[in-house]
Model the fold of this input.
Amino acid sequence: MEFSSLVQTIQNSLSFIGISPVTAWLTVYPAIVVIAVVAYGCFRTKSDHIFITRVWRVLHGKTPIRDSILATYFDNQDALIKFRFHTTLPVQTLPAVHRLIEWAKRQDISMAEIKRCGHFFNLTELAIDKKKLWNKPTRAACFVFALASLYAVFFIGIFTVAPNLLVQLKTGEKPWFFISEKLAVNTLTKANRFSLDDCIKDPPDIAKQSGWTINDVETVCDVLKNPNLKKEVTDLLLEQRIAALVVTVTLMIFTYMAFSLYMRSLAAEKLEKFLISKKQSQLELDLNSTLTDTSMSD
Done:
């Protein structure tokens, strides 16, 4: 073929290092999704426990541990990581989890409020870590990155359902263009559209309208005459949609991470103000109580 799709370009790069297209679809692309999911789990728990556990199961299977002390230890670790995954709070031990729960009850704070603060909450001092609190420029930069990732999700996500195949000509100036299953070409330079019928009528006019060279136009017109082109485009379009789906899912995870960090910073600032206000109110109550006791004594 005289052109290659975006997926083929990636596959050619993988083939250069010895990875065939079949191997890429069976191993590389699924591995990207698996790695993204595991990375997401490690991101939430701030631990490699999930990764190490999966590696151990691959190497050793699910054979139960016979030693009771070790079995209890690993059960506690699983419970701890489960708490960390659901709350995103990197508590180190189960006793520390129990202490955190009791403190939250005394402060009239739900675990959800602490959870929203994420790593900005100091689990040792049971307070907001002021050293980690973001300033406005950092928070703005995170928000911009999140928006950019979200835009990329929508942009690439379009290719999961797009009716046209994005390809690049291998010869000449190597322009990128869209081709549909109906074998209609849409150029990216001047948003021009042409088909085989237009090629037969006036190729120079196509070159003028599209901004392509006449050689590139004639090359594409020759490709459109290929009787097997429709099937090839259909097959490549399926590959494009699958690849776009993999990339979109990966970008969605990174977008979620960015927005999560941004919202955490806002929640931490809000909780810090609440704790300060509660502390001041408690001091006023204690002062009033002391004055009352002194007055009654007199």
